[in-house]
Structure formats: C-alpha cells, structure tokens
Design brief:
The chain has three helices and five strands; from the N terminus they run αββααβββ. It has 181 residues and is of the alpha+beta class. Strands 1, 2, 3, 4 and 5 form a five-stranded antiparallel sheet that branches. The chain is rod-shaped, with a radius of gyration of 50 Å.
C-alpha cells in the first residue's frame, strides 16, 4: 500500500513514473519550429464567353396550282402505278393488279399536280449569341504546416525530434533504464 501511494505522489508531482517496465517523464521544450511544405492544389472554375451563332431562317410562300394542266403528272402516275401493279400476282390477277395500279397511280399524280404547296422563296441568316462555357483548372500554391521540429532539454542534455502537433511547453519522453555491465 505504501508503494502505491508513493507512486501516485510521484506521478502527480510531474516526476518520472513507471508503466509496465517503461518509464515516462516530461522534458522542457526549448524551441518549436514549424515544418512548412508548399502544396499545389487544383482549383476548378467555369469560364464562359458569348459566341455568335448564325442560323438560316427560310421564308415560304403558298403556290396555287389549280390552274395548271395535270395531264403529264396523271400519265406519269399511271405508268408508275401500272408498273408496280404488274409485279403483283399471276395471270388474270396480274392484269387486274396492273389496271388497279395504273388507276391509283394516275389519281395520285392528278391530285398532286392540282394540289397547292409551299415553296421556299428565300430566307435570311440571323445572328444570335450563345454562352459557351468550359471548366478550367488552375493550380494554387498553398503553404501547410506538416509537422514541427522540437528542441527540448532533459537531465541537462539537449535533444531534437519531429512531431505532427505542437507539443506546448513540455514534451513527454520515454526514459529507458538498463543496467550497465
């Protein structure tokens, strides 16, 4: 019981204490210098510009063809329809298909020749502007503290080490005691 209270008093006073055959103590920090590393970080940004775009705007006019002679279109339609009908069937069926194709083709040609239609009568080019955007990557250099060079004194001797954090006024040290032969 006496040794436990003595060890407790020693650890509370900030002196060396023992933990499973390894002893620890605190040393006074003399100086702390940050270890600085320059890092280049990518920074993306969107860059937009306005570019001209030309589009063609056609103009149409209605063309009335009711007064036009449909004879040529009717004959051409009948010839094409008859030729297509002739490829269908055999014997009397082929003749009937040829006649039906000629009649239907002539009717379509006649109707098409008389039907009005829209025709392009010209047009114009128009210019408008569109935003064209792209992502650009710039690199920004930044300095970062990656550790600390620490100089400390223990038992009258000066030591150096590196840590990943600032130690403060004191640094914990491991004291190795071994017998000398």
């Amino acid at each position: 019981m006496l040794s436990l209270s003595a060890a407790l008093a020693v650890s509370q006073a900030g002196f060396a204490y023992q933990d499973s055959s390894v002893e620890y103590d605190y040393a006074d920090v003399l100086s702390v210098d940050p270890i600085v590393e320059t890092v280049s970080e990518p920074v993306e940004r969107q860059v937009c510009r306005r570019e001209p775009v030309q589009t063609y705007q056609p103009q149409y006019a209605y063309q009335d063809r009711r007064h036009r002679d449909p004879t040529g279109a009717t004959v051409l339609g009948a010839i094409i329809g008859g030729a297509l009908g002739n490829t269908v069937g055999r014997g009397d069926g082929r003749r009937a298909a040829t006649i039906a194709g000629a009649v239907i083709g002539g009717a379509i040609g006649h109707d098409n020749a008389r039907r009005g239609r829209y025709v392009e009568t010209g047009g114009s080019y128009r210019t408008h502007y569109e935003d064209v955007c792209s992502v650009q990557t710039d690199y920004q250099e930044e300095e970062r503290v990656v550790g600390y060079d620490v100089t400390y004194r223990y038992n009258g001797r000066v030591y150096h080490t590196q840590t990943d954090h600032h130690p403060g006024d004191q640094i914990r040290v491991e004291v190795a005691v071994s017998p000398a032969f």
